[in-house]
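Reader question, answered in our methods column.
A reader sent in the components of a multi-part assembly and asked whether the whole thing could be modeled at once rather than chain by chain. We filled in our standard form and ran it. Here is what they sent:
COMPLEX SIZE: two components
ENTRIES:
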Amino acid sequence: MKVISILKPYRVQIAVALFLMLVELAVELLQPLLIARIIDNGIMKKDLGVVMVWGGVMIGLSLCAFAAGVSNSFYASHVSQNYGYNLRKELFTKIQAFSFENFNQFPATSLITRMTNDVTQMQNTVFMSLRVMLRAPLLIIGGLVMSFIIDARLAIFIAVAVPVLFVFLMWVMKKGGALFKSVQENLDRVNGVMRENLSGIRIIKAFLRSRHEVKRFTEANRKLKSNTAFALRLMESTNPILLLVMNIAILCVLWFGSVQVNTGGGKIGDLVAVINYSTRITSTFSIFSWIIMAFSRAKASGSRISDVLNTEVDLVAPVDSVITRPDFKGEIEFQGVSFHYPGTKKQVLKDISFKAEPGETVAVMGATGSGKSSLFQLIPRLYDVDEGKILLDGMDISRLKLEHLRNAIGLVPQEALLFTGTVKENITWGKENATEEEIKISAENSQIAETIASLPKQYETRIGQKGVNLSGGQKQRLSIARALVRKPKILLLDDSTSALDLKTEGKLLGALKHYPSTILIITQKIATAMEADKILLIENGMLLMEGKHEDLLLRSSLYQQIFQSQFGEESLKHAKGFE
Amino acid sequence: MLKALSEPFRHKRAIVQKVAAQAAVPKRKKEKAKDWRRTLPRIWSYLAREKGRLWLVLLMVVLSSILGLLGPFLIGKAIDNYIVTKDNSGLLRLLAGLLAIYILNSAALWFQNYWMIGIAQNTVFSMRTQLFRHLHKLPIPFFDQRQYGEIMSRVINDIENVSSTLNSSVIQIISSVLTLLGTVGFMLWLSPLLTAVTLIIVPIMFVGMRWITSRTGRLFKEQQRNLGELNGYIEETVSGQRIVKAFCQEERVIAELLDKNDKLKESGFWAQTYSGFIPKLMNVLNNLSFALIAGAGGVLALNGVVTIGTIVVFAEYSRQFTRPLNDLSNQYNTLLSAVAGAERVFEVLDEEEETKDEEGNEELAGVRGEIEFKEVSFSYEEGGNTVNHISFHASPGETVALVGPTGAGKTTIINLLSRFYDAKRGSILVDGREIKGIKRESLREHMGFVLQDPFLFEGTIMENIRFGRLDASDDDVMKAAKEANAHSFITKLANGYGTIVEQDGSGISQGEKQLLSIARAILANPVILVLDEATSSIDTITEMKIQEALHRLMIGKTSFIIAHRLNTVQKADQILVLKNGEILERGSHDDLLKQKGFYFELYNSQLQREIG
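And here is the structure of the entire assembly that came back:
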């Protein structure tokens, strides 16, 4: 797995960390042995010197182990932090190279989770692996081995108990995993009802449905309660059972140990040591389940991350003959363009052809799902067409350098997406080296300058997280400013004025006329469309009609209906009469 | 162990919630409770309902703590009294006793958990239900003044916090304390001298821990901040990927990410390294005390002060001794955050309920739907919209359109009419009766609402429409859907009326949601109708359907419309033009146009371009 190979450059540090951990472990495993020496050779033989020497050795070893542990902390932390860093870097770089087809495979929220929680998860697992995770199984095995070295006949009892408990533990974990999954579903349900109720509280109050909702909630809550209790009780049973089994093993050790001591075949110190090993094993068992959990989580995280890293980036390398031409006039032509989203069957655009002259404003109208936004996404090549061609200044856009193409375009998406940072940073997002003058002009033209002036620190005001919250309309205007500052040859407005009142929108559209840009604007409002040089009426992915407002008003019944719904019957008569 | 097992699920849950709630549930790190003295008794008042079982749990905890201590002690006895002296029958008796103790110990452990889980789950159940009920009784201003994410966080995270603490921490804390006291007691009784030797490590431990935590606290805060910043950046850029690509900014965002990534690595390294010292410190102290017991114990044994058995017992106890200390410091933090969580839940429970209907408030029956506002004034406490001296009269069946810029007070008037808020001055009359004297429920029973953001809950389409009138038959629902122009799109869905609406309402467009909410209102068939037209852009075809359906819905009802579409306004019997909380102009569409005032201006800004 690629997730693991990222660790490669840190082989040496990993080896050192593991070695240091083994030192620690060795000390811990030696201690019961040493205490046996003290008892058998010191106390039983009344030899003070032996007690002092071995006692001193034990203290010395403890300090060694401490030194090893502390150094281990450095190495483990170094490895894991670098690992996390590199993993994030790989992922993010990969994601930046993604085409939009790739993005369709992973919803944004899932990508974010992979980059945040999953990476942290992996990083912690690496850290813990280098410190305790390997230690627990090694301690159990080591403890067993040591017991066998000291007294094989006594060690047998522990050797029987450990695998039995291990299997038992695995069984409970598996069972528990399934149970907790259903608990999770129950909890999601409870929280879901809660969420619905919070967002719909006005309607619920208005329709007097509180009692109904409380009943729904209580049902879900009750189910959650009983399932949680059941799952937890199962999990909590493991500890008492584990203890009981190990304790019984210890009893056996005691009994047979004393028999051996009686017959002269065993030493008390050895007996004490074996008992000490078994209690150490017992307490290690209790973190075992935690380790299994952590590993299975890491495995899941790892494969989620691998999914991303192994994704093949399938766009958008331009074909061989690249035309290098950073400057355009802005003439756009669609020639028989058809398109469907990768992984779906439905054709969202069928045989679309139209032409927009440089500096023209083209309005695009149509129902939701008719394909307007898809049409927009093809122009900066966020997706590639299936059939037909899109030409910019007569050149096929798939042969242009992607960077040049996109730099000529100012896209304002439907949902105004701003980034955390100052107002200025958000505007200059469109053009890093924009001058103060350019920023001001684009803010004025997008009708946001007044709002900015009223902010506490004007252009330096922070927005987004920990900053000022802007209204929907303000966000829209700011994202228009971001596009305008680039003085784009092509301006794509994807219904980006929906939250503006008519007056502001009018001013905005007026200001746009001074830009030497070809403007394509998706809109639902006739009032906006009327301003355009040309209106495209799209239905079910096909270009239904093309023309000026007056044309469409006469020729298209759909357009008439829309007009009527927005302005009323009388206006329609009035408007037609005017013609 | 329990914690270890349920933790991953909580982790996953956290992601699910975050993703679903979107409205960033604020993460709180171990916040401290403000008022322990008030919060603890209240938590107790929940637990007190389970007094009987709680005593049983306590009994079991005491029992298991004692039995847990008795085990090693008896092993020591076995070595001293029977193995060293080779007394087999005595040993056998003692081992039988030990077996009984072990069985009892495990049983006590099992039962204490069994009962405690029951108590915890019952407590959390009643807390949740109570909270939910209470939320329904809270007045609308409560919801308007708070962020949705914040309430969600209380309801979900804080209660979860309480739940997991009750499940495991309570028992752990009690048993840690008991074990600690018991261990020290036993050790003192066995050999004060050797105890003193063992306890040497305690001050070292405290000093060491202090040294470490004084560094990690700051480092962790910094790491957390850097991580938050980095994750925030990732979230933003990934969800804004379209913009990043369209503006060709890939390299720039990568560079910025690496910068933040670097910072995180730096602070993370030290935080992790230092915090990694803690278990190492506990280990070395364990080992040291073990060595001390062996060495000093050996010396003492040679002098006949202690026996070998005592050394064995001490060796076991010393390990039981550092663990509870460690546990306690961990559990203390969990407990703190749980109390803080409980306090935040109680804060919601303490919010005042919607004022109870006054004594003698009457039912409303046989309403005609005549509405009158007399000199009504109102202001929200914290700024916001204000309305002043609003007076108007609507006859039964009339349509009143409210027009004006954002913040003019349109929504406020609707809020007052439905008694989501109560007017500060003036009076509102329905059929000539003051609405303050009418029961809220009874008033709203006669009102129907179609709001901007239609509330759909997870369930079938059928259930969602039936929400308007719970006793409606399937046929009634379908009839309403037909009238609302919703029938045709519903039947096109895979499962028709049985289609499940997802929690986030996906799969159904905004416009279609509107149609469903109109169907709901048609089914409810109220006398007074409140409409808040959607501003968000709905495609033109659906928009036409909505207009048509609304038109049908409004027939014969007194309707109040917050209007954004000229078409709706033109058809209204009466238009109230609002600005800054006052009625600026009123009259029919034609009247107002003749006045050539504010309305004229508004109207023309939509039409002028056509004429000009």
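What stands out: Chain B touches chain A through 173 residues (CB under 8 Å). Chain B has 21 helices and twelve strands.
Send us your own complexes using the same form.
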